[in-house]
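Deliverable D4.2, example record:
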Amino acid sequence: MIYSGLLIILLPLLIGYLIPIKNEIFIQYINKMLSGMVYIILFFMGISLAFLEDLDSHLLMIVNYTLVFFLSIFFANLLLLFLLERVDPWQTSVKQQQLPSRWRMALDSLRLCLVVVSGFLLGLTQWHWLKFAEHGSEYALIFLLLLVGAQLRNSGMTLSQITLNRKGLLIAVLVTLASLAGGVVAAQILGLPIQAGLAIASGFGWYSLSGILITDAYGPVLGSAAFFNDLARELVAIMLIPSLVVRYRSVALGLCGATSMDFTLPVLQRSAGAEIVPPAIVHGFLLSLLAPVLIALFS
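Output generated by the structure prediction step:
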């Protein structure tokens, strides 16, 4: 059972990664499909959540789990990243640039919350045909992972680029260790299995993937907690990057997690200049590659 679940997650990811795509238009089409699939699966997740028994108590559990996991993982990351700043400070002379509205970027992220809430409200009708959502989300997940694999393969990153960028690689390793440690602490506080804590911590801010995979492995309560935990990480990163990046560049990058490769990359670039882009892409790429693998292993 464990190996079959691992295979279901890793096989489509591997197949997608092995598909070389040269056509730029097709790559853009894959990115659009990926965004669409995220909305569909999160909508299914909201429906599944509404079919839980004792729903009121489960909602309180989700809030409690989200707060404990977010605080544990966030402060574990801060601790190691500030330690890195003391041991290996990031020297730079680039001045901070003018940023667009951070609130607008935050609202773009919150749209995903509205998708989950919309599915949840529809699920409250308890229409019998809505029970298909659980099976539908599994098939959609397989297709999503296929697209993720193709996106990672065609991101333009080579093995030499990853290994030669010491800063991005080092920060990614520290973020991985800190997040897993925070997950263990949160699991101990909440009385959850250590493996569940490690799985939730392995999202690294990639809320659209972690919520889906954790729901599939541990149910909609922990899946929803994983989703909101990683979404909170991205929102906090967006708010803190401009103030942190002036003196604590490694901290600002590390807090972004896997999203430093895509969503938070423009914020980093505008705040710190072009020099932060290569380590940010390497950092995000490695965490994006690790997230589904570690979640699958710990599930």
